[in-house]
Every structure is written in C-alpha cells, then in structure tokens.
Amino acid sequence: MTAQLNPRGDVAVLVPAAGAGVRLGPGGPKALRRIGGEPLLVHAVRRIAAARSVHTIVVAAPPGDVRAVRELLAPVAELIVVPGGATRQESVAAALAAVPPGPEIVLVHDAARALTPAILVESVAAAIRGGEDAVIPVLPVVDTIKEVSADGVVLGTVDRSALRAVQTPQGFRRSVLAAAHAAAVDPLTDDAGLVEKQGVRVACVPGSEYALKITRPFDLALAEHLLNAEHLPDVAPAAERG
Ligand code: C5P
C-alpha cells in the first residue's frame, strides 16, 4: 500500500541515491541492488515514510534511471524524484531545490542505509525541533584506529575515545542547509561537513547499528541476514505511528 505522508509534518527527507556503487562490485547503481527481493532504495524509503513527522521525501536518482525510480517508488510512498548529480553533494543540492515550501527541518539520508529505523528519523528531527541547527547520529568507534603511511607503515595510534562514526539521517534547519550548499566549494562526503565550514554547531544523537551503510559485498550479505532476523526493529515502532 502506498504510504501517505503527513501533510502537517515539518520534515523533508532528501535521499541521495544516484551513486554508482562501484565498491559493491558489478551490478548497477547501489540504491537499486536488492535485499529480500527489493532494492535498497525501497527499503530505505519505506522506513522514512513510516516516520510520523515526514511531510516530503525527495529522491535523487541516477540521471538515466529517473523514470524507473519513479515507477519503482510509486507504490511505496508519494514522493518527488529528481535526477542526481556527478557527486553526492550535487545530488543533495538537486533534491534540496525540489523541496516545496513548508517543511522547516531537512534531513539528508543515504539510500545505502536501507535498514535505518523510522525512530532514528524522528530522534534527529526532534533534536532540530528542540533548537539545534544541525544534528548527526553517531556511534562510538569500536576498533583501535591507527594512522598509516601510504606505504603501509604505522605512523601512530589515534585516541579513539573522542572519535565517533557518523551515520545518516543528518538533520538541519532548512535555512542552515540551504546556506551551506549555496556557499559550498569543494565536494564533501557529508552535509554536516558543509555546515561545519559555516561555523554552525553540529550536535550528536545516538545512532543505530541498523543504520549501517551498505557499501561492500559483506554489508549486503549482513543486511540480507538482518532483514530475515526476528530482532530487526519494526518499520515504525507503534509509538511513532500517528
Ligand atoms: O558513494 P557513497 O557510498 O559515499 O554514497 C553515499 C550516498 O550518496 C549513496 O546513497 C549514493 O547513492 C549517493 N550518491 C548520489 N550521487 C552521487 C554519488 C553518490 O546520490 N553522484
């Protein structure tokens, strides 16, 4: 059934999904790779659409696949599909430009984090609503981290206690994200990086292990397993449904 988004919601979610996914090996755009018989993008959008605050979803699709992505997602949720750009940042900018007037909170969420629970969307949005200009979900770093030279020799050990692995959805006050994109010069791998450059404070909320970024063949296998496991969080916990 097509999910109806909340016309009184205050959140727009941008989904950059135009990457080639070369690290997954051959097989087409990453967002269209399948787990449980469905493309990653479908899983990601279904979970976003289950978050009660979401008013608008804009997907940036591979430029050659816009029509196919529109058809793919039409049964999942009512949303906007735009052609993505040559970099993730360009894809986000294209999606941002397509957000209609209304939502004052904008989240940016990678399609590759297909199993992200709706409750994480809500917790990031809630932090912006609570007064933050920019919010990222983070997890502690569990591995020891070393700095290594180009020829594979250890230069030093980094103190991991202050390090965090950053996930999406990243949340922003709409005007803050628009200003950061307008001022952007070099492409960065995330949007919080852009607003940091503007001197904006970026706050952290706890991330979710289910928001793992499906990047390599191992991640695809892990995601497939998680999808079949009983402990996968619901698409939307009951408390989050309107
Ligand atoms: O390449 P990477 O894994 O960092 O991509 C993160 C997200 O950005 C993915 O969801 C990918 O589809 C998206 N992306 C995009 N446009 C690009 C490159 C990546 O929308 N040109």
UniProtKB/TrEMBL annotation:
It catalyses: 2-C-methyl-D-erythritol 4-phosphate + CTP + H(+) = 4-CDP-2-C-methyl-D-erythritol + diphosphate. InterPro entries: IspD, IspD/TarI, IspD/TarI_cytidylyltransf_bact, ISPD_synthase_CS, Nucleotide-diphossugar_trans. Pathway: Isoprenoid biosynthesis; isopentenyl diphosphate biosynthesis via DXP pathway; isopentenyl diphosphate from 1-deoxy-D-xylulose 5-phosphate: step 2/6. The record marks R23, K30 as: Transition state stabilizer. Signal peptide: none annotated. Keywords: Isoprene biosynthesis, Nucleotidyltransferase, Transferase. GO terms for molecular function: 2-C-methyl-D-erythritol 4-phosphate cytidylyltransferase activity. The keyword Ribosomal protein does not apply. It holds the Pfam family IspD. Its EC number is 2.7.7.60. It comes from the Bacteria. Belongs to the IspD/TarI cytidylyltransferase family. IspD subfamily. Catalyzes the formation of 4-diphosphocytidyl-2-C-methyl-D-erythritol from CTP and 2-C-methyl-D-erythritol 4-phosphate (MEP). NCBIfam families: ispD (TIGR00453). This is 2-C-methyl-D-erythritol 4-phosphate cytidylyltransferase.
